[in-house]
Design goal:
- The complex is a heterodimer of chains A (249) and B (337).
- By secondary structure, chain A is an alpha/beta fold.
- Chain A has ten helices and ten strands.
- Helix content of chain A is 40%, strand content 25%.
- Chain A is globular and about 55 Å long.
- Chain B has 337 residues and is an alpha/beta fold.
- The chains are: A alpha/beta (249), B alpha/beta (337).
- Chains A and B meet through helix 6, helix 7, helix 8 and helix 10 of A and helix 8, helix 9, helix 10 and helix 11 of B.
């Protein structure tokens, strides 16, 4: 579904992403895990075309998509979507949920007729209802706002979604609801996820494959069980050893 | 329960915190009892808005009045009644004044905050505030304060203390800044330290180092530590006892092993079940339905009843009180295993 090959970008002297390569199969969840400054969010921006790589390739469904201009990229924008960490910051506070959810259709499918129906189906899909449509973001809890962001990402029936720390701002009881929702959506819609996170327990819960990033480099990549339970890289081991215990010793 | 020997560093009864806002009066902390012994770490755990940070801020005298209002029936710090001579407020409680707390703050009670950048003044070098607390609270003269401050920088694991001392906060990493903040909190030799999510802003490898540092310093100094966190893994690692807060109240309190092995309150059980773990597999998590109520709209009776799988009619009508010793739970239908 998605492959990146020798991807690299630098900000001044900082090599933010350095020769990173991996592949994600259709229907899989691939997690990029790392600490702050490891380059994992920069990877998300490179994959989404929000940032141009200096080197390397991004290949989506067999086609190279880095260096495409806006017009050429447009069909891919429909098929690739992104959900951000802070739903408060990624939703326009002056738009109702209905307006927010109509926008993707207005841009990509102008003249769409049954908008009301589509928007209602979207909110139901993420566990909200029609009564929520004419409210503004500030009237929702953090978990509900993240459901709205997910509904917006789903609007144009994407195949691939980048999830950049989608539950990091949420409490554990609400995080569980959103993780369950993401798993349900993947199963029902056959979605492929690139999941960016610093939380190894959440990564273990959600992912099929895991890549560990440190200072812009991918230090280890492989099936989740192998990377998280039998790591070969010393940094991965140090990272795993740093996690607080599950219960008192 | 009212008969205490003098061996608590902190004894708090029936703490209430109100905030007077444009939208009306918000009752953020609703009758919290806590006690901390020397050398003990009490974990205060809960989700956003449960009142755990407001509890710590109230104890530090950091809630401005107005718009805040802090009341309690008893607040003893090392046997000293901090409510002595306090004006009486509503419901036969006494009003805690910031000046009463200020007397014991620093020398007796210190606090470590979540964001070390906000705790350090950017225009002073790292050694300045440590020197200042040593001079103010331990009455050291300038040369001695300088020597002790450098010793503290070494003690909290900063390499090359002499070089670090002259640096400014922006020249240090988050982990190093939190180490400086810890030195600042412990230098005046307090009896009680409140740590409010001290590692939440740090990366996991740095967090592990800072937690190990705090544990080591506590064993050495026998301070009482009130550790506020939302992370049950950190509770398991750091705490001797735990109080779980929900909607402004403590709903369960127990020695840490008992809480993890046999939680009684359905909310505590829900928190454990909702938590993804490294070895937990990929099955659906048992999410708690609904959301944490905002302090302005706390449900009647037991505040957890609308989200509780065990709730019955009684739960909406009456507020359960904490029962049991030493494992206490505020629930009419607690889980018994």
């Amino acid at each position: 579904m998605l492959a990146v090959k020798n991807l690299a970008v630098a900000f001044g002297a900082l090599r933010a992403v350095d020769e990173v390569s991996f592949e994600i199969s259709r229907g899989d969840t691939f997690a990029l895990v790392g600490e702050s400054g490891s380059g994992k969010s920069t990877m998300a921006r490179l994959v989404m075309g929000l940032l141009q790589p200096e080197n390397g390739e991004v290949v989506f469904d067999g086609q190279r998509i880095d260096h495409l201009d806006e017009r050429a990229r447009r069909p891919f924008r429909r098929r690739m979507q992104m959900v951000f960490q802070d739903p408060g910051g990624s939703l326009n506070p002056r738009r109702t949920v209905r307006e927010t959810l109509c926008e993707p259709f207005v841009i990509h499918q102008p003249g769409q007729r049954d908008l009301d129906e589509k928007v209602l189906a979207l909110v139901s899909r993420v566990g909200l209802s029609g009564e929520h449509l004419d409210r503004y973001p500030h009237e929702f809890s953090g978990g509900q706002r993240q459901r709205i962001s997910i509904a917006r990402a789903l609007a144009l029936n994407p195949e691939f979604i980048v999830l950049d720390e989608p539950t990091s701002a949420l409490d554990v009881s609400v995080q569980a609801q959103i993780l369950n929702l993401l798993q349900d959506l993947q199963r029902d819609l056959g979605l492929t996820y690139l999941f960016i996170s610093h939380d190894i327990a959440v990564v273990a819960h959600l992912s099929d494959h895991v890549g560990v990033m440190r200072q812009g480099r991918l230090v280890e990549v492989g099936p989740a069980d192998q990377v998280l339970h039998a790591p070969s890289d010393p940094y991965t081991r140090a990272l795993l050893d740093s996690i607080p215990p599950e219960r008192p010793g | 329960m009212s008969d205490y020997s003098g061996d608590y560093v902190l004894e708090l009864r029936d703490l209430h915190v109100y905030f007077h806002t444009l939208g009306g009066r918000v009752h953020a902390v609703r009758g919290v009892d806590l006690e901390v012994r020397p050398g003990e770490t009490l974990g205060l755990v809960g989700e956003t808005g449960c009142g755990k940070s407001a509890t710590a801020s109230a104890l530090m005298g950091l809630i401005a009045e107005p718009p805040g209002e802090v009341l309690a029936s008893r607040l003893h710090f090392r046997g000293k009644d901090l409510l002595a001579g306090a004006a009486s407020g509503r419901d036969r409680l006494r009003r805690l004044s910031a000046t009463a707390v200020a007397e014991v703050r620093g020398g007796g009670i210190s606090m470590i905050f979540q964001d070390p950048s906000a705790a350090l003044n950017p225009v002073f070098s790292v050694v300045d505030p440590i020197r200042a607390v040593l001079r103010h609270h331990l009455m050291l003269d300038a040369p001695r304060a300088q020597t002790r401050a450098l010793e503290w920088l070494a003690h909290v694991g900063l390499p090359d203390p002499e070089a670090v001392a002259g640096k400014y906060p922006h020249q240090l990493s988050g982990g190093m800044k939190q180490r400086v903040a810890i030195a600042m909190a412990l230098a005046p030799e307090p009896a009680l330290v409140l740590a409010d999510e001290p590692t939440t802003a740090l990366d996991v490898t740095v967090q592990a180092q800072v937690l190990a540092l705090l544990r080591g310093l506590q064993e050495e100094t026998r301070i009482g530590l009130l550790f506020i966190t939302h992370d049950l893994g950190i509770v398991a690692e750091m705490c001797h006892r735990v109080a779980v807060m929900y909607a402004g109240r403590v709903v369960e309190e127990a020695p840490v092993k008992e809480l993890f092995e046999a939680p009684r309150h359905p909310y505590t059980r829900g928190l454990f079940a909702a938590r993804p773990t490294l070895h937990g597999g990929r099955e659906r998590l048992a999410a708690i339905p609904g959301a944490v109520p905002p302090p302005s709209a706390i449900p009647s009776g037991c505040p957890f009843h609308p989200r509780c799988p065990r709730a019955q009619a009684k739960c909406a009508a009456q507020m359960p009180v904490l029962e049991g010793d030493p494992h206490r739970a505020a629930c009419f239908f607690p889980v018994t295993s």
